[in-house]
Amino acid sequence: MSYQADIQADIVIVGAGVVGLAIACEVTNEHRNVYILEKNERFGQEQSSRSSEVIHAGIYYEKDSLKAKTCFEGNSLLYELSERNNIPCNKCGKIVVATNNVEVEELEKLYTKGKDNGVPLRMLSRGEMAQLEPNMSGIAAFFSPTTGIMDSHAVMEYFLGRAKSNGAQVACGTEVTAIEKVSGGFVVGAQDPSGASSLMTRVLINCAGLYSDKVAEMAGIDIDKADYRLHWCKGEYFSVRGGKNKLVNSLIYPVPMTISVGVHVCLDTGWRLRLGPLFYYVNEIDYKVDDSRKRFFLDSSMMKALPFIEPGDLYPDTSGIMAMLQGEGEDFRDFVVRHEYDRGLPGFVNLVGIESPGLTASPAIARYVGNMVNEILGN
To answer: Of the candidates 300, 324, 348, which is a domain's last residue?
Structure first.
């Protein structure tokens, strides 16, 4: 790639998922020439449009981790943003329920972890459980009042609209093919249907989601040495029909017995009811939902908590794939949001492994990255 570039930019953002768009909204102003490059034909076509759309409270994450901090901050920011801009959301709350004595022990540990993260949780009596969710079965539970649901597409539309109104240029159908570190920044090679092009930028922000490790590798990082290699984890959802959505009043989750939060009640802002996601690691991108996997849903602890859901109520729905830093059986890994100056890449801001709670954390991550960008550009 030659040093000469077709376009001069201050900031190039790779990826137009919810985090990339939130960052674009944060860093764009009249004094900066900002470009967003997205390989798909529209924004948010991968992780961001295939999530549970839950506004998480910050219960599950290790204390003082970036996941915990940005989720907690992003929770209140998303509700404020939604209220100011009429973005559909519902602070319906969430119940985490135990169905046996082993789960009760884990429930108490999770309650303590959430409280340590600043989440306003409340243990429920049996009477309160019956009052809040009369159709739920369980022996112990706690309530998270700040958990909710939102229209993820609408919030992405908002971030995109704000970024464009502040001057950002968005190029969809444009895939990054090469990155070269040069004096004063980076030359980014890109390919779109009309041919190849290049952009010279002072700041390069990697928000490429499922492919963020590949973009980091293009920039010259040894992703195995840095421990940035991603693992794709697929989550499948089954819809629940027969009017059963009228039998739940909030999100209902099992006690997590693995690194996954487990199959749980998923509701959208129209109160459509799904169960999921059922997670398993994959090597290919494939969004088909296998009806034969219904048996795993039927065996899940969530079904014990929701005895009114019968096998015939479940139908294959949608799926999503998350870009996870931890492989199968591995322990908690935090978000990577890092200015890679000490790897010889000043101006390269790297976001790798931004999976759940990425939607909730997006406005807080944007602020975090915005501060990095201000330091790099000096304004």
So the answer is: 324
Residues of the domain holding 205: 7-48+153-229+332-377
What six digits make up the tokens of 237?
A: 């959802």
The 10s digit of each residue's pLDDT in 328-372 is 989 899 999 999 999 999 999 999 999 999 999 999 999 999 999
Residue 132 included in any domain: yes
- In a domain? residue 25: yes
pLDDT higher than threshold 50 for residue 221: yes
What CA–CA distance (Å, rounded) separates 293 from 286?
Answer: 15
Is-above-0.70 flag for pTM? yes
User: Any idea what the CATH number is for the domain that residue 247 is in?
Assistant: 3.30.9.10
Q: How many other CB atoms are there within 10 angstroms of residue 227's CB atom?
A: 12
pLDDT at residue number 259: 64
Nearest CA to 143 out of 105, 111, 100 is that of 111
- Amino acid 111 reads Y
On the CB side of 151, how many CA atoms lie within 13 Å of its CA?
17
Cα 261 vs. chain centroid, distance in angstroms?
14
Q: Which amino acid is at 43?
A: F
